[in-house]
Protein backbone atom coordinates (compact mmCIF):
# COMPACT_ATOMS: atom_id res chain seq x y z
CA UNK A 1 0.00 0.00 0.00
CA UNK A 2 1.23 3.49 -0.89
CA UNK A 3 -0.06 7.05 -0.63
CA UNK A 4 0.11 9.99 -3.03
CA UNK A 5 -1.26 13.48 -2.41
CA UNK A 6 -3.43 15.18 -5.03
CA UNK A 7 -4.39 18.85 -4.91
CA UNK A 8 -7.62 19.91 -6.63
CA UNK A 9 -9.37 23.27 -6.19
CA UNK A 10 -7.11 24.20 -3.26
CA UNK A 11 -7.96 20.97 -1.42
CA UNK A 12 -5.53 18.12 -0.83
CA UNK A 13 -6.46 14.44 -0.90
CA UNK A 14 -4.21 11.59 0.22
CA UNK A 15 -4.93 8.67 -2.10
CA UNK A 16 -4.15 5.12 -1.03
CA UNK A 17 -3.31 2.73 -3.85
CA UNK A 18 -1.53 -0.49 -4.80
CA UNK A 19 0.16 -1.50 -8.03
CA UNK A 20 0.49 -5.06 -9.33
CA UNK A 21 2.79 -5.98 -12.25
CA UNK A 22 4.57 -2.59 -12.13
CA UNK A 23 6.79 -3.26 -15.16
CA UNK A 24 3.92 -3.85 -17.61
CA UNK A 25 3.33 -1.18 -20.27
CA UNK A 26 -0.47 -1.33 -20.47
CA UNK A 27 -2.64 -0.14 -17.57
CA UNK A 28 -5.85 -1.42 -16.07
CA UNK A 29 -7.31 0.77 -13.31
CA UNK A 30 -9.82 -0.59 -10.78
CA UNK A 31 -12.39 1.63 -9.04
CA UNK A 32 -14.53 0.13 -6.26
CA UNK A 33 -18.15 0.83 -5.39
CA UNK A 34 -19.68 2.99 -2.69
CA UNK A 35 -18.85 1.80 0.84
CA UNK A 36 -16.16 -0.55 -0.46
CA UNK A 37 -12.41 -0.21 -1.06
CA UNK A 38 -9.60 -1.33 -3.33
CA UNK A 39 -8.97 -4.60 -1.45
CA UNK A 40 -12.00 -6.44 -2.83
CA UNK A 41 -10.96 -5.57 -6.39
CA UNK A 42 -7.33 -6.51 -5.76
CA UNK A 43 -8.19 -9.83 -4.09
CA UNK A 44 -10.41 -10.78 -7.02
CA UNK A 45 -8.47 -9.60 -10.08
CA UNK A 46 -4.77 -9.57 -9.13
CA UNK A 47 -4.21 -13.24 -10.15
CA UNK A 48 -5.31 -12.44 -13.72
CA UNK A 49 -4.59 -9.97 -16.54
CA UNK A 50 -0.86 -10.56 -16.21
CA UNK A 51 0.06 -8.39 -19.20
CA UNK A 52 -1.30 -5.27 -17.48
CA UNK A 53 -0.06 -2.96 -14.78
CA UNK A 54 -2.92 -3.10 -12.24
CA UNK A 55 -3.73 0.12 -10.37
CA UNK A 56 -6.03 -0.37 -7.39
CA UNK A 57 -7.32 2.86 -5.81
CA UNK A 58 -9.18 3.77 -2.63
CA UNK A 59 -11.34 6.69 -3.73
CA UNK A 60 -11.53 9.64 -1.28
CA UNK A 61 -13.59 8.75 1.79
CA UNK A 62 -13.12 4.99 1.43
CA UNK A 63 -10.55 2.49 2.60
CA UNK A 64 -7.37 4.30 3.59
CA UNK A 65 -8.14 7.46 1.56
CA UNK A 66 -9.75 9.92 3.96
CA UNK A 67 -12.11 12.74 3.01
CA UNK A 68 -14.15 15.28 4.94
CA UNK A 69 -15.22 17.45 2.00
CA UNK A 70 -18.59 17.44 0.26
CA UNK A 71 -17.94 16.05 -3.23
CA UNK A 72 -19.78 15.33 -6.45
CA UNK A 73 -18.99 12.73 -9.09
CA UNK A 74 -17.26 15.39 -11.19
CA UNK A 75 -14.95 16.03 -8.21
CA UNK A 76 -14.10 12.34 -7.93
CA UNK A 77 -13.38 12.32 -11.64
CA UNK A 78 -10.98 15.27 -11.40
CA UNK A 79 -9.23 13.80 -8.36
CA UNK A 80 -8.74 10.35 -9.90
CA UNK A 81 -7.71 11.82 -13.25
CA UNK A 82 -5.03 13.96 -11.59
CA UNK A 83 -3.90 10.98 -9.53
CA UNK A 84 -3.52 8.84 -12.66
CA UNK A 85 -1.39 11.56 -14.22
CA UNK A 86 0.99 11.26 -11.26
CA UNK A 87 1.36 7.57 -12.10
CA UNK A 88 1.79 8.30 -15.82
CA UNK A 89 -1.19 6.09 -16.50
CA UNK A 90 -2.19 5.56 -20.10
CA UNK A 91 -5.79 4.71 -19.06
CA UNK A 92 -5.86 1.75 -21.44
CA UNK A 93 -8.63 0.11 -19.40
CA UNK A 94 -10.61 1.45 -16.45
CA UNK A 95 -12.84 -0.99 -14.57
CA UNK A 96 -15.54 0.35 -12.27
CA UNK A 97 -17.91 -1.48 -9.95
CA UNK A 98 -21.21 0.14 -8.94
CA UNK A 99 -20.49 3.82 -8.10
CA UNK A 100 -16.95 3.35 -9.41
CA UNK A 101 -18.46 2.70 -12.82
CA UNK A 102 -19.79 6.26 -12.97
CA UNK A 103 -16.35 7.67 -12.23
CA UNK A 104 -14.77 5.25 -14.70
CA UNK A 105 -17.16 6.39 -17.46
CA UNK A 106 -16.44 10.05 -16.73
CA UNK A 107 -12.69 9.42 -17.08
CA UNK A 108 -13.28 8.48 -20.74
CA UNK A 109 -10.72 5.66 -21.00
CA UNK A 110 -9.74 3.88 -24.21
CA UNK A 111 -11.59 0.81 -22.92
CA UNK A 112 -14.32 0.92 -20.27
CA UNK A 113 -15.27 -2.09 -18.14
CA UNK A 114 -18.45 -1.77 -16.09
CA UNK A 115 -19.38 -4.19 -13.31
CA UNK A 116 -23.03 -3.73 -12.25
CA UNK A 117 -22.53 0.01 -12.40
CA UNK A 118 -24.77 2.66 -10.91
CA UNK A 119 -26.12 5.57 -12.92
CA UNK A 120 -29.59 4.54 -14.08
CA UNK A 121 -32.34 5.86 -11.82
CA UNK A 122 -34.61 3.11 -10.55
CA UNK A 123 -37.91 3.27 -8.72
CA UNK A 124 -37.41 3.42 -4.94
CA UNK A 125 -39.24 1.00 -2.67
CA UNK A 126 -42.06 2.23 -0.44
CA UNK A 127 -39.82 1.74 2.63
CA UNK A 128 -37.10 3.97 1.20
CA UNK A 129 -39.62 6.64 0.14
CA UNK A 130 -41.11 6.61 3.66
CA UNK A 131 -37.70 7.05 5.30
CA UNK A 132 -36.90 9.99 3.00
CA UNK A 133 -40.24 11.68 3.80
CA UNK A 134 -39.78 11.24 7.56
CA UNK A 135 -36.19 12.48 7.43
CA UNK A 136 -37.24 15.59 5.50
CA UNK A 137 -39.95 16.26 8.07
CA UNK A 138 -37.49 16.17 10.98
CA UNK A 139 -34.95 18.23 9.02
CA UNK A 140 -37.61 20.90 8.51
CA UNK A 141 -38.05 21.00 12.29
CA UNK A 142 -34.30 21.41 12.77
CA UNK A 143 -33.95 17.95 14.35
CA UNK A 144 -31.06 16.69 12.21
CA UNK A 145 -29.73 14.36 14.91
CA UNK A 146 -32.95 12.34 14.76
CA UNK A 147 -32.66 11.92 10.99
CA UNK A 148 -29.42 9.96 11.39
CA UNK A 149 -31.43 6.84 12.32
CA UNK A 150 -32.99 6.93 8.84
CA UNK A 151 -29.71 7.04 6.97
CA UNK A 152 -28.74 4.30 4.55
CA UNK A 153 -26.42 1.60 5.89
CA UNK A 154 -24.04 2.79 3.16
CA UNK A 155 -23.41 6.04 5.06
CA UNK A 156 -24.41 5.62 8.68
CA UNK A 157 -20.79 5.43 9.88
CA UNK A 158 -19.49 8.22 7.64
CA UNK A 159 -18.70 11.85 8.49
CA UNK A 160 -20.96 14.71 7.45
CA UNK A 161 -18.86 15.49 4.38
CA UNK A 162 -19.30 11.97 3.05
CA UNK A 163 -22.98 11.92 3.96
CA UNK A 164 -23.47 15.10 1.91
CA UNK A 165 -21.43 13.49 -0.86
CA UNK A 166 -23.72 10.45 -0.79
CA UNK A 167 -26.79 12.68 -1.14
CA UNK A 168 -25.14 14.42 -4.10
CA UNK A 169 -24.38 11.26 -6.05
CA UNK A 170 -27.06 8.72 -5.15
CA UNK A 171 -29.77 10.15 -7.41
CA UNK A 172 -27.65 11.16 -10.40
CA UNK A 173 -29.01 10.14 -13.77
CA UNK A 174 -25.95 9.14 -15.81
CA UNK A 175 -27.88 8.18 -18.95
CA UNK A 176 -26.42 11.03 -21.01
CA UNK A 177 -22.91 10.29 -19.73
CA UNK A 178 -23.18 6.70 -20.93
CA UNK A 179 -24.57 7.87 -24.26
CA UNK A 180 -21.71 10.35 -24.66
CA UNK A 181 -19.05 7.67 -24.14
CA UNK A 182 -17.84 6.76 -27.64
CA UNK A 183 -15.01 4.28 -27.01
CA UNK A 184 -15.07 0.54 -26.42
CA UNK A 185 -17.11 -0.79 -23.46
CA UNK A 186 -17.49 -4.22 -21.88
CA UNK A 187 -20.46 -4.42 -19.52
CA UNK A 188 -20.76 -7.26 -17.01
CA UNK A 189 -23.73 -7.82 -14.70
CA UNK A 190 -25.20 -10.09 -12.05
CA UNK A 191 -28.57 -11.51 -13.09
CA UNK A 192 -29.81 -11.52 -9.46
CA UNK A 193 -28.49 -8.04 -8.64
CA UNK A 194 -30.96 -6.13 -6.48
CA UNK A 195 -28.79 -3.01 -6.03
CA UNK A 196 -28.51 -2.24 -9.75
CA UNK A 197 -31.02 -4.23 -11.75
CA UNK A 198 -30.28 -6.34 -14.80
CA UNK A 199 -32.59 -4.06 -16.80
CA UNK A 200 -30.35 -1.10 -15.89
CA UNK A 201 -27.39 -2.99 -17.30
CA UNK A 202 -29.20 -3.65 -20.54
CA UNK A 203 -30.19 0.00 -20.78
CA UNK A 204 -26.58 1.13 -20.32
CA UNK A 205 -25.53 -1.28 -23.07
CA UNK A 206 -28.15 0.24 -25.38
CA UNK A 207 -26.84 3.75 -24.63
CA UNK A 208 -23.18 2.99 -25.38
CA UNK A 209 -22.82 2.38 -29.11
CA UNK A 210 -19.65 0.27 -28.99
CA UNK A 211 -20.52 -2.06 -26.12
CA UNK A 212 -20.75 -5.75 -25.31
CA UNK A 213 -23.08 -6.97 -22.55
CA UNK A 214 -22.51 -10.20 -20.60
CA UNK A 215 -24.50 -11.37 -17.56
CA UNK A 216 -23.74 -14.02 -14.94
CA UNK A 217 -25.67 -15.94 -12.32
CA UNK A 218 -24.97 -13.81 -9.27
CA UNK A 219 -25.78 -10.69 -7.23
CA UNK A 220 -24.16 -7.23 -7.02
CA UNK A 221 -20.79 -8.88 -6.34
CA UNK A 222 -21.12 -11.49 -9.10
CA UNK A 223 -17.57 -10.72 -10.29
CA UNK A 224 -16.01 -12.36 -7.21
CA UNK A 225 -16.86 -15.83 -8.54
CA UNK A 226 -16.45 -14.95 -12.22
CA UNK A 227 -13.18 -12.99 -12.23
CA UNK A 228 -11.30 -15.49 -14.41
CA UNK A 229 -13.90 -15.45 -17.19
CA UNK A 230 -14.30 -11.67 -16.96
CA UNK A 231 -10.53 -11.21 -17.17
CA UNK A 232 -10.29 -13.42 -20.24
CA UNK A 233 -13.09 -11.48 -21.90
CA UNK A 234 -11.29 -8.22 -21.12
CA UNK A 235 -8.08 -9.55 -22.67
CA UNK A 236 -9.96 -10.64 -25.79
CA UNK A 237 -12.32 -7.66 -26.00
CA UNK A 238 -10.22 -4.53 -25.57
CA UNK A 239 -9.03 -2.38 -28.46
Automatic annotation (TrEMBL):
A molecular function GO annotation: hydrolase activity
GO CC annotations on file: membrane
Pfam family, one: Abhydrolase_1
Keywords assigned by UniProt, alphabetized: Hydrolase
Residue ranges of every copy of the AB hydrolase-1 domain listed in the record: 28-107
SUPFAM superfamilies per the UniProt record, alphabetical: alpha/beta-Hydrolases
Name of protein: 2-hydroxy-6-oxohepta-2,4-dienoate hydrolase
Amino acid sequence: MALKSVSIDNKTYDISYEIVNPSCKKDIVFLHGWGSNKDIMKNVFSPYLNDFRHIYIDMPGFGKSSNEYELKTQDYTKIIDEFLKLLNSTKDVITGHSYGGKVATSLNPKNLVLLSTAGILEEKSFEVKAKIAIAKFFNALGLKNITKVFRSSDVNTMNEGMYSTFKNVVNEDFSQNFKDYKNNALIFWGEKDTATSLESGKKIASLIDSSTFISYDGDHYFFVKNAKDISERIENGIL
